[in-house]
């Protein structure tokens, strides 16, 4: 019988995802051998705190705090990087590729910032670099975009790509939890980043949208090209008013190509309660992909968490090992080939939900709507609600399709009106086509 070749892994990180990777490699070893013909062995694990009490026990001889011990180990074939952060991780992975080690990573911060250089380095040393887990945890969306839609032209992506914020918004909306309590739960469940600011301020989702846009539109997109707004300003009042009007608030990433111009945004959005994305709750993620030929498709699954994320990591590892056996590593990376042209504010359109606090007296509505007319912003729906405060009312206006440029001219005008006390909130509105 032919001897099984052992593929040795250097694992960078033994936190939430790293522990999941160890569990899957150990627990699914038989399947991995069947699929690849190789035994997969974890040779060394990089950690930073040797005294940490770990709830999943590994052989302590595997642990090291020295990355170079792994990078310069000639027996190690593949590095799995699940330690996070951009630096020093970037330096480690560039060096590992130079040592001709294949790399699998879950690190979107790194890929959104240095993905192009790392892919170039991988290609230079005929190594693989896979990063499926960096977007939407367990959903194989990168593979779908790169392989499944290779023959199509993608025109739009709409996604819930951050598990933590979707968990928080779902808990606030369905169970009335406060933002702080819901965030605390998401942290305990291992969904949030070590610094959850990047989740709640939308940066994590923005990085993921930059990665997906790169692969979908073949443009050299980076995080600076994404307009970002997080969920910290979303109030229970907005959630309740949205519900009354038939909407759910979700942190949506939208990337859209119009006349060869690309717009990418991440922002809290009112989405029709009957749209499939409105029903994606908790840590679940979903991505709608619109292709010229295929039409609409939707991908759904766990966007974060130990085992869903580890599944994506270990599946990438299987691909690397199969390619090692075929001797075809480092091929097939397609560099961006379309010129990057970002969309002007005139071309970028949406419907909007605008909530104002106004004076409650004769002529106020006319005074306000005349400003909409001056900016050619067409109103679809108006709702006036009494406030407990004397002579004050709440006005909710939903517009027809309006350009970002029109909105930017309208809002300061409304703000300066003596009858308007405050613009409480503005949300894009999506998904009414399902009605
Ligand atoms: N958690 C999730 O659901 C998901 C996470 N990701 C990504 O996966 C990566 C890992 O996330 P997660 O597992 O949650 O992170 P954790 O914070 O749980 O784990 C990080 C691990 O890396 C080790 N580590 C961190 N910095 C260093 C360093 N400088 N040198 C040596 N070891 C280091 C830590 O060591 P020690 O244990 O000693 O502290 C720890 O074991 C991140 O890039 C994250 O964005 C992607 C998708 C989902
Ligand atoms: N913090 C991230 C983890 C996965 O990428 C999230 O909540 O989605």
TrEMBL record:
Its EC number is 1.1.1.3. It catalyses: L-homoserine + NADP(+) = L-aspartate 4-semialdehyde + NADPH + H(+). Its cofactor is a metal cation. Residues 353-428 form the ACT domain. L-homoserine binds at residue 193. This is Homoserine dehydrogenase. One of its GO terms (molecular function) is metal ion binding. NADPH binds at residue 108. It comes from Tepidibacillus fermentans. Belongs to the homoserine dehydrogenase family. Keywords: Amino-acid biosynthesis, Metal-binding, Methionine biosynthesis, NAD, NADP, Oxidoreductase, Sodium, Threonine biosynthesis. The keyword Endoplasmic reticulum does not apply. The active site is at 208 (proton donor). Pathway: Amino-acid biosynthesis; L-methionine biosynthesis via de novo pathway; L-homoserine from L-aspartate: step 3/3; Amino-acid biosynthesis; L-threonine biosynthesis; L-threonine from L-aspartate: step 3/5. PANTHER family: HOMOSERINE DEHYDROGENASE (PTHR43331).
């Amino acid at each position: 019988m032919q001897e099984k070749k052992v593929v040795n892994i250097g694992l960078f990180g033994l936190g939430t995802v790293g522990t999941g990777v160890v569990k899957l490699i150990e627990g699914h070893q038989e399947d991995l051998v069947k699929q690849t013909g190789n035994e997969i062995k974890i040779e060394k694990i990089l950690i930073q705190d040797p005294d940490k009490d770990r709830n999943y026990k590994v052989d302590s001889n595997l642990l090291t705090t020295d990355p170079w011990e792994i990078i310069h180990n000639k027996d190690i074939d593949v590095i799995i990087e699940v330690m996070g952060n951009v630096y020093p991780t970037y330096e480690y992975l560039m060096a590992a590729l130079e040592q001709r080690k294949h790399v699998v990573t879950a690190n979107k911060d790194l890929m959104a910032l240095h993905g192009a250089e790392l892919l170039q380095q991988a290609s230079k040393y005929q190594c693989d670099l896979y990063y499926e887990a960096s977007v939407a945890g367990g959903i194989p969306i990168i593979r779908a975009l790169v392989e499944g839609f290779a023959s199509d032209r993608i025109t739009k992506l709409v996604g819930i790509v951050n598990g933590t914020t979707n968990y928080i918004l779902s808990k606030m909306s369905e169970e009335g939890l406060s933002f702080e309590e819901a965030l605390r739960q998401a942290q305990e469940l291992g969904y949030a980043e070590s610094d959850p600011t990047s989740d709640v301020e939308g940066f994590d989702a923005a990085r993921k949208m930059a990665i997906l846009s790169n692969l979908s539109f073949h443009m050299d997109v980076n995080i600076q090209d994404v307009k970002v707004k997080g969920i910290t300003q979303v109030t229970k009042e907005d959630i309740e008013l949205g519900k009354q009007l038939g909407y759910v608030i979700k942190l949506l990433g939208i990337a859209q190509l119009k006349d060869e111009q690309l717009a990418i945004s991440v922002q809290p959005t009112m989405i029709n309660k009957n749209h499939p994305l409105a029903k994606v709750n908790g840590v679940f993620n979903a991505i709608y992909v619109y292709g010229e030929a295929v039409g609409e498709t939707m991908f759904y699954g766990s966007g974060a968490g130990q085992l869903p994320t580890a599944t994506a990591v270990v599946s990438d590892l299987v691909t690397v090992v199969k390619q090692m056996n075929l001797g075809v590593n480092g091929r097939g990376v397609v560099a961006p080939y379309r010129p990057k042209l970002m969309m002007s504010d005139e071309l970028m359109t949406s419907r909007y939900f605008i909530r104002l606090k106004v004076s409650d007296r004769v002529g106020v509505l006319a005074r306000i709507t005349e400003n909409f007319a001056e900016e050619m912003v067409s109103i679809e729906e108006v709702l006036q609600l009494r406030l407990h405060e004397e002579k004050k009312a709440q006005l909710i206006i939903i517009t027809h399709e309006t350009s970002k440029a029109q909105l930017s001219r309208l809002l300061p005008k409304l703000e300066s009106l003596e009858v308007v006390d405050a613009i409480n909130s503005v949300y894009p509105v999506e998904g009414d086509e399902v009605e």
